[in-house]
Amino acid sequence: MASSREAAEAEFRRFDTDGDGLLTAGEIRQANEALGAHGASESEIEAFIKSADNDGDGTIGLEEFVGLVGHGRHEKA
């Protein structure tokens, strides 16, 4: 069974469609659209980006992503 970090890294690579090592808002929205009715709302996406973007550059790097989703903090209560 994969660790939570490994699972988060795999998800990051899947979402990082241009392979630049950064997730943009557009890439996150594109991944969310693929979920259809099970996806997050626009306000939830914005909150996710804001909470994960520790350095304020408007993108989410691998470590930022792993830090947020690798520990299950993105899950709804």
UniProtKB/TrEMBL annotation:
Annotated CDD domains? EFh
Listed A to Z, the keywords are: Calcium, Repeat
Residues spanning the membrane: none
Q: Which domain of life is it from?
A: Bacteria
In the UniProt record, the signal sequence range is none
EF-hand domain location is 3-38, 40-75
Q: Which InterPro entries match?
A: Centrin_CML-like (IPR050145), EF-hand-dom_pair (IPR011992), EF_Hand_1_Ca_BS (IPR018247), EF_hand_dom (IPR002048)
> What Pfam families does UniProt report for this protein, alphabetically?
EF-hand_7
Entry protein name: EF-hand domain-containing protein
Q: Source species, please? A: Nonomuraea marmarensis
